[in-house]
Amino acid sequence: MDNASSTHTKPEEVYNAVNDFMKTVAVRSSRYSHSLSLKSMEMITQTRNKIAKMFNVKDPSRVIFTNNCTTAINTVLYGVINDDDKVVISSLEHNSIMRPLGRLYIDKNIKIVETEHTNTYTIDLFDLYKKSLGAEMVIVSHGDNITGAVNNITDMVDITHKNGAYILVDASQTAGLINIDVDGSGVDFLVLSGNKNLFAPHGVGILILGKDIQSKDIRTMMQGRTDALAEFEIEPDIIPDKFEIGTLNYLSIAGLQGALKWIETKGIDSIYYRTETIKNKLLEGLKVLNNITFYHTLGDLSTNILSINMKNIAAIDLATLLDKKYGIIVDGTLQSNPRAHKYLNTYPTGVVRFSPNAYTTFNEVDAVIDAMKEISNRVK
User: Fold this and answer.
1) Contact between 6 and 202 (Cβ < 8 Å)
2) What beta strand segments (E) does the chain contain?
3) Which of 1, 70, 111, 363 is the most exposed place for a label (fewest CB within 10 A)?
4) Distance between CA atoms of 83 and 172, rounded to whole angstroms?
5) CATH, domain 12-265, list 3.20.20.70, 3.40.50.970, 3.40.50.720, 3.40.640.10
6) Rounded distance between C-alpha atoms, residue 333 and residue 183, angstroms
7) Is 123 strand, coil or helix?
8) What is d(CA 167, CA 123) in angstroms, rounded to the nearest whole number?
9) Top-level CATH class of 267-379?
10) The pTM is what?
C-alpha cells in the first residue's frame, strides 16, 4: 500500500501505451528524419500538450521532460542560484532538495533559512514573508511526503514575489491528485514526478517553467544532443530544447501519456475524492488501536499519505512483518526525509507510511486494518 514513491498498480492504459510505442515506433525523435522518428516526436508533443492542459500552462514548450523529479530540481537550483544567495526552505523538505542545497552551501556559500510551520504542518505564511525578505529563491513542497500536509501555492507565490524572489514548488506528491494551476498561480518553477500520482513508469520527471521565466534565466547543467539546431556546436537557447539534453526516456513518456488519458477520463477531483475516501477508511480503522501514533495533517486538504508508528515495534520491523506475513507493502524508513523526521521527533527510526491510491480497494483496506489489529495485540 505504499505508492507514494513507487506506484505499483497502474491503469491498463499505461501498459498499453508502452507496448504500442515499443511495437510501432521504438526510436528517438527528430524534426528532420524518417517517419518513425516523426511519430516519436508526435508522441512527445502530445504528452507535453496534455501536461500543459492539466496544469494550465498556455505555452506547452514550457513543459520540460527530465529523467526524474530530482533532475528537475537540480536543473533549477544549479541553474539559478549564485554565490552568497539566500534560499528559504521549510522544515519538511526531502533530500532531493536538501542535498543539492548542501552542495551549494559548500560550493557557493549560500545561506539557507528555514520557515516555521503551523499545527497542521503547513508553512506559516507570516513567517514565510519575514524569512523571504532578501531571498533569491523559496523552495517548498506542495504536499509533504510524511504528514500529507498541502500548502497553498497561490499564497506562497504572492508572498514570495512581493519580496522579489523566485519560487520553486515540488509537486511530486500532489500532481495528478490535486488540481494545480501554473499560469493562474504565477509559480516560477513546478517540478513533478511521473511515477507517483501521475501513474507513469519510472524514469520521467517534469519541470514546468512559469510564464515569466525566460530561457536566459537558467543556466544549463549539461550540453549535448538536442532535437533542434543540430548544425550548431553550442546548445540552443530555446525552451524546451535547452534543457532536454540527450535521448529522452520515450517508453516512460509514452506510459505517462497513457496515464494522462486515464486521469482525464476520471477527472482529478474524482480521483482525489476516491483516494480520500479510501485513506479515511484506513484512518478510522486504525484509530481504534490505542498504541498507534499518527503523523498526519489535520488540515482541510491532504495527500494520500498516512504515516504512523506503533508502540513496542520499530517502524522497519512493522513494515517487514506486514510484508512477510501479510503481503502488505509499506515504507518503514526515513522516506529520504531526515529533516522532516527530526522535526517530527521520529528520527532516526522513521515511520510506517501508507499511501493508498485510486486503485486501492476497500477489501485491501480491511485487510490492512485486520493485520494491524493482530499485530497490535501481539506487541502490547
Assistant:
1) yes
2) 63-66, 86-89, 111-114, 137-141, 166-170, 189-193, 205-209, 292-294, 306-310, 352-354
3) 363
4) 28
5) 3.40.640.10
6) 36
7) strand
8) 14
9) alpha beta
10) 0.93
Strand locations in 163-289 (E): 166-170, 189-193, 205-209
Measured distance CA(131)–CA(137) in Å, rounded:
11
The torsion region of residue 121 among left (phi > 0), alpha (psi -120 to 50) and beta comes to left
Distance CA 130, CA 86 (A): 13
Side chain identity at residue 184, one-letter code: G
Around 290, how many Cα atoms within 13 Å sit in the side-chain half-sphere?
A: 1
Q: Is 23 exposed, middle or buried (0-12, 13-18, 19+ CB in 10 A)?
A: exposed
Listed by start position, the domains of the chain span 12-265, 267-379
Q: Output the nine-digit C-alpha cell for 158.
A: 504572492
Q: Do domains 12-265 and 267-379 have the same CATH topology?
A: no
- Provide the grid cell at 375: 499485530
DSSP character string of 188-205: SEEEEETTSTT-PPSS-E
Contact 191, 164 (CB under 8 A): no
Q: Which residue has the cell 508533443?
A: 45
Q: Going residue by residue through the chain (380 aa), what tens digit of pLDDT does each one get? A: 665 444 456 788 898 887 777 667 655 555 556 676 777 888 999 999 999 999 999 999 999 999 999 999 999 999 999 999 999 999 899 999 999 999 999 999 999 999 999 999 999 999 999 999 999 999 999 999 999 999 999 999 999 999 999 999 999 999 999 999 999 999 999 999 999 999 999 999 999 999 999 999 999 887 776 666 666 667 778 899 899 888 888 899 999 999 999 999 999 999 999 999 999 999 999 999 999 999 999 888 999 999 999 999 999 999 999 999 999 999 999 999 999 999 999 999 999 999 999 999 999 999 999 999 999 999 97
d(CA 62, CA 238): 10
Distances (CA, A) of 16 to 4, 44, 131, 246, 258: 23, 16, 48, 26, 7
Phi/psi class of residue 148: alpha, beta or left (left: φ > 0; alpha: ψ in -120 to 50)? Answer: left
